[in-house]
Amino acid sequence: MARIAGVNIPTQKRVEIGLTYIYGIGRKTSRDICAKLGFATERRVHQLNDEEVLRIRELIDREYTVEGDLRRQVAMQIKRLMDLGCYRGLRHRKGLPVRGQRTHTNARTRKGKAKPIAGKKK
């Protein structure tokens, strides 16, 4: 099993898909990594040798912000918005949608499970 950036990459998946298990690497970034290192798109993770896994690890460490560093960076940006007291920061603080979605109905992912209000008939 290949371990890159502290994440175990599934061995039966293609390299392009397996890399997306790392936080901060999506399909496009994983395709770019494979292209830079010259891997065929149909190669599986278990077909990589130790030297190739090491090349992937070094490239990711050198050129991309992933996992813990990226999570910390995003959390700091959200905290900065909340400290400023700007509209987006207030929405984060209240646990409401940040990007202009309606909240009268919907927004259940952000607001949580619906809570009944006593005495609200009619």
UniProtKB/TrEMBL annotation:
Keyword terms of this UniProt record: Ribonucleoprotein, Ribosomal protein, RNA-binding, rRNA-binding, tRNA-binding
One GO BP annotation of this record: translation
Entry's transmembrane regions: none
Keyword Nucleus: no
GO cellular component terms, semicolon-separated: cytosol; small ribosomal subunit
Keyword check for RNA-binding: yes
InterPro entries: Rbsml_uS13_C (IPR027437), Ribosomal_uS13 (IPR001892), Ribosomal_uS13-like_H2TH (IPR010979), Ribosomal_uS13_bac-type (IPR019980), Ribosomal_uS13_CS (IPR018269)
Entry's Gene Ontology molecular function annotations: rRNA binding; structural constituent of ribosome; tRNA binding
Segments of this protein annotated with the region Disordered: 95-122
Pfam annotation, one family: Ribosomal_S13
Top-rank lineage group of the source organism: Bacteria
Assembly with partners or alone: Part of the 30S ribosomal subunit. Forms a loose heterodimer with protein S19. Forms two bridges to the 50S subunit in the 70S ribosome.
Stored NCBIfam families: uS13_bact
PANTHER family: 30S RIBOSOMAL PROTEIN S13/40S RIBOSOMAL PROTEIN S18, SMALL RIBOSOMAL SUBUNIT PROTEIN US13M
Annotated function: Located at the top of the head of the 30S subunit, it contacts several helices of the 16S rRNA. In the 70S ribosome it contacts the 23S rRNA (bridge B1a) and protein L5 of the 50S subunit (bridge B1b), connecting the 2 subunits; these bridges are implicated in subunit movement. Contacts the tRNAs in the A and P-sites.
Family of the protein in this entry: Belongs to the universal ribosomal protein uS13 family.
Name of the protein in question: Small ribosomal subunit protein uS13
Organism: Elstera cyanobacteriorum
